[in-house]
Amino acid sequence: MLLEITFFVLTDELLGFKDATAKTFKLLPGESKIFDGEEMNYTIPLDAERGSIIKNEAYYVTSFKKFPNKYSGAAFNETTIVDPMIKITKTGDELSKIGDETTYRFEVENIGDLPLKK
Length: 118
Description:
The chain is an all-beta fold. The protein contains no helices and 6 strands.
């Protein structure tokens, strides 16, 4: 017997899918639905603290025709806020004259919280 889903409601408050904007659809056995694109983007706030975690939670509620039961569940993802930063300092001879060799020095410093790789 094939059970027909009467509705499937997906909410994600961080992305703004709630109440009237929740994603509502039918899903047949073996089917899947992918959500992607602009509506799935979230911009990390400028005042987010380095090392803090943004937890994004999605919830669903569904039911089937001829069954009074409702089923629900959740999935989540955690994003750790990092702050990659590089500091470059350049020094060199303050004075020189035509024909002289001038020497420069660069210092590149990792002042962020991620390792630098080649």
